[in-house]
Structure formats: structure tokens, C-alpha cells
Design brief:
CATH topology: Thiol Ester Dehydrase, Chain A
Number of domains: 1
Radius of gyration: 20 Å
CATH superfamily: Hotdog Thioesterase
Number of strands: 5
Shape: globular
Strand order of the largest sheet: 1-3-4-5-2
Strand content: 25-35%
Helix content: 25-40%
Length: 186
């Protein structure tokens, strides 16, 4: 310490997230990113030798919940799954890669984008093709199951910023649809 000069310890600026154990800045889409792999076994397929859609939806929900939980720092519940598109069939014996990350965070809810890829038997990355994509909304909950606030999301890259802006538009549509469903049930 220099004589006659008072030193004040200052923390990191509020707009700069701290790092996660992976070295990724906390509160960024990258910090929430999840990738899982599954093998399509005989009990998971239909008579056509392709995976049941419901099994794939379950895997999507689990990966997305992990991503949302990472960002929220605790428990989350699935509020909706929308824009689920089965683009390509996934066959018996193929490896399914599921990638999920938080695209947007509001007060207590988050949108998680999920991409699903299938890899042919022994093809590795060269045989990887996108099979499915979806967007899910999660709500962070406390120990009583009530909604609780989540930290803001800090998109860093141009791609993350694009996803964030697209998620804002999808959220507006989802909220409008939800209000219409509530009115229809009154």
C-alpha cells in the first residue's frame, strides 16, 4: 500500500460474469451448454426400425433441463416444448448426440435450444446429420416449487446474440398463445 493513498478493493464490474470451473464466463450461453450421447437400442425403436419420437423427446427434455439448471443454479421445471421438428429419421444402432444451451433468460423463465444429431454406425463425425431440433421453456423454482428469479444471460458471440434476439421473438409469440389459451378456457 502506498503511503497517504487509501486503497479500495473493487470487485469485478456487474456486467462481467465470473468464470465457471470450465473457465467459461458464468451467465453465458456457453456456460449452460450440454452435450449428451445415446445409443439407439432395439427396445427404443418402432416397427420401422426408427426411434420412437417420445424417447427422443425425453432425451431432449433431460438435456435441456440440465442446461437450464446450470444457468439457474438450481431446480427447474419444464413449462413448454415447442417448435419440435423431426427432420430425419434416427435408426436402430445409430448414436444420438443432443446439444442444448440457454438462448434467453427472463425473470424466472429460460428458453433452451436443442439440436439432435444422428451418427451412422461407425461413421463418426463424417456421418453426422441433424435429425431434430426443438425449443423448450423452463422455469426456475425454489424448494417450495414456486418460481424464482434467474440470473440474466450474457450472450458473447454473434451467434449467441442472434439466438438471443430470435428467442425474444419466440417468447413474444409463446406469451400471446398462452394468453389466448387462457381466454379460451374461461
Amino acid at each position: 500500500m502506498l503511503p497517504g493513498i487509501a486503497m479500495k478493493r473493487v470487485g469485478a464490474p456487474k456486467s462481467t460474469p465470473k468464470s465457471t470451473p470450465k473457465g467459461t464466463p458464468k451467465g453465458t450461453p456457453e456456460a449452460s451448454r450440454v452435450e449428451t450421447a445415446q445409443l439407439v437400442l432395439p427396445g427404443l425403436t418402432n416397427v420401422h426400425g426408427t426411434i420412437f419420437g417420445g424417447i427422443l423427446m425425453q432425451w431432449i427434455d433431460v438435456a435441456a433441463a440440465i442446461a437450464a439448471g446450470r444457468h439457474a443454479g438450481g431446480q427447474v421445471v419444464t413449462a413448454s416444448m415447442d417448435r419440435l421438428h423431426f427432420l430425419e429419421p434416427v435408426h436402430l444402432g445409430e448414436v444420438v448426440i443432443i446439444q442444448a444451451q440457454v438462448n434467453y433468460a427472463a425473470r424466472s423463465s429460460m428458453e433452451v435450444g436443442v439440436r439432435v444429431f444422428a451418427e451412422g454406425r461407425g461413421d463418426g463425425l463424417l456421418g453426422r446429420r441433424q435429425a431434430t431440433r426443438a425449443y423448450l421453456t423452463f422455469v426456475a423454482v425454489d424448494g417450495e416449487g414456486r418460481p424464482r428469479e434467474v440470473p440474466p444471460l450474457h450472450p458473447q458471440t454473434a451467434e449467441e446474440k442472434r439466438r438471443f434476439q430470435n428467442a425474444v421473438r419466440r417468447r413474444s409469440v409463446r406469451l400471446r398463445e398462452r394468453r389466448a389459451m387462457k381466454r379460451a378456457n374461461e
